[in-house]
Design goal:
Helix content: 25-40%
Structural class: alpha+beta
Shape: globular
Distance between the termini: 121 Å
């Protein structure tokens, strides 16, 4: 009879080795995973509880926004190619010339390469201009620095418009176009050919941002930029866009409310979608933004070069001659650029060749500039408020000339001041006969309000001066730039009490409602 197998025998031990009560390694991983799942569930539960309370909910949303949904915060790297750059500026602030603005200008020259740069500044005051010239020369930057005190603008050459019978005022835009052209004047005499032009306002900027605008906007597959013009974005406050006078969407609309994303969705909404996509080349029809880069070939044409679309090149700044319409000289120059056919060297698609680069931001105050990086973290929160405000305020503003066909004949109105001979009734409609709903804000009620009385007095004043006459007008390509207003200069440096500057908006005649 076989003897029983002992539990301690080698055979049993090999077949039925006891499993240990616990494996410290398995135990550690199990408890760690269990703890992680518990913490995740706890955190989610706490977040849901917090979201039921307004203040914690806002804090959570803001935290998520800052970390995961900021805009224009991670620009691509770029290199500076060996291109010649002409830097032009108008400035009349001695503190800026001798301070941050002047320093950034010199740093930009050094960054691009002093041997490849020419700086042209027209402005003042005289002593600040002289010191800037010395600093640029010491840095090895070729320059043409001209103080307006030494070479003033010829006021007799500026365009004047009749604002009252026998009273003429200088159009502000004609003056601005003249001083900008003075900054570009050295291009006519320099033998050096330039690849880019950088035009600066009196803004606070960084040299690296100027270089990014020049060399990192709409970069093509071959590593070269493809634009006719590229603009920065300027801010009055860290969250509030500034230059709406020159900015137009790709459809030619005015911008909407001046918070991110700056454009309304009206029309095709291309500009708005481009901003939301975080691109460095937002397609627009016109812009300025305090700092703009141009392809220099349009401004420094070869001798005798002629373009039948825009007239004789090189392009220069200009103004609108029509009395009670104004267009920014900065918008008109982009209109002229679009008059030149696109080429594969600059524009690879059917766009205007004009772009805005929101990675490049400038301001007019140091306090505002310091807040720009933080605001980029939050500005996407403005998308919905922007859309709602644009919708309920019917922005952008209506421009009757936006979609006019260039060279077509348009029936319009012309203001005529009273003279010794009045036109026949068939060709003129006196203002006094155009009442009721034909004029803006005109009301026909039994009792006049204070506003009605003011409007009635305003219209009565103009009726005493003249009348509106129907006339034919040839439409131009720059109708999208225009707005019904008249900005005039106060000659003799007289400051306007309304604006605190030497310019103001002049009164304009009431216009028919269906043309507003």
């Amino acid at each position: 009879m076989n003897s029983p197998i002992s539990m301690s025998s080698p055979v049993f031990a090999r077949a039925y080795e006891r499993v240990p009560h616990s494996d410290t390694r398995l135990d550690k991983h199990f408890h760690r995973d269990q703890r992680a799942r518990y913490l995740l569930a706890y955190s989610l539960r706490r977040c849901l509880q917090l979201l039921k309370k307004p203040v914690p909910a806002i804090i959570v949303v803001l935290a998520l926004q800052v970390v995961f949904n900021s805009s224009y915060s991670n620009p691509a790297s770029f290199t500076i190619p060996p291109e010649n750059v002409f830097i032009a500026a108008n400035i009349n602030d001695g503190q800026l010339v001798l301070g941050d603005w002047g320093t950034s200008l010199i740093e930009t020259c050094k960054l691009v390469g002093p041997e490849r740069t020419h700086v042209s500044v027209y402005g003042g005051p005289l002593m600040a201009m002289r010191e800037l010239e010395a600093r640029l020369s010491a840095a090895g930057c070729d320059n043409t620095i001209v103080a307006e005190e030494m070479e003033p603008i010829d006021w007799s050459s500026l365009y004047r418009v009749e604002v009252a019978p026998g009273e003429y005022r200088v159009k502000r835009i004609s003056y601005l176009a003249a001083i900008r052209n003075r900054a570009l004047a050295p291009l006519d005499g320099l033998s050096k050919r330039f690849d880019k032009i950088l035009f600066l306002n009196d803004v606070l900027f960084q040299a690296s941002d100027a270089a990014r605008l020049l060399f990192a906007t709409n970069v093509r597959h071959d590593g070269k930029t493809g634009y006719k013009a590229a603009c920065a974005v300027d801010f009055h406050h860290s969250w509030k866009f500034y230059d709406t006078f020159a900015l137009r969407s790709s459809d030619g609309y005015y911008p909407g409310v001046r918070i991110y994303p700056w454009f309304a969705s009206k029309g095709d909404g291309i500009s708005r979608r481009d901003v939301l996509s975080n691109t460095d080349s937002v397609r627009v029809k016109s812009c300025w933004g305090g700092m703009v880069a141009f392809d220099a070939k349009y401004f420094q044409a070869a001798a005798g070069q002629h373009n039948t679309t825009i007239g004789t090149t090189p392009i220069r700044f200009r103004f609108e001659h029509e009395p009670f319409w104004d267009s920014s000289e900065c918008c008109l120059v982009h209109s002229d650029l679009q008059g030149i056919p696109n080429d594969t060297e600059n524009v690879t698609d059917a766009s205007t060749g004009i772009y805005m680069n929101p990675f490049v931001r400038v301001t007019y105050k140091a306090s505002t500039y310091r807040w720009l990086p933080l605001v980029r973290r939050f500005e996407r929160l403005f998308i919905v408020p922007n859309a709602l405000i644009n919708h309920f305020t019917h922005m952008p503003e209506y421009n009757p000339r936006r979609d006019e066909i260039p060279q077509s004949t348009v029936l319009d109105w012309t203001w005529v001041y009273d003279g010794t001979t009045r036109p026949s009734p068939s060709s003129a409609i006196p203002v006094r006969q155009k009442q009721g709903d034909h004029f803006n804000s005109e009301r026909e009620t039994g009792q006049l309000t204070a506003r009605d009385t003011s409007e009635a007095q305003y219209r009565s004043l103009w009726r005493a001066k003249g009348y509106l006459q129907r006339s034919n007008r040839t439409a131009t390509r720059d109708g999208f730039c225009s707005t019904r207003q008249l900005l005039v200069i106060n000659e003799g440096a007289m400051v306007s009490p309304n604006t605190g500057t030497n310019w103001e908006a002049a009164a304009i005649p009431p216009w028919p409602k269906n043309d507003s």
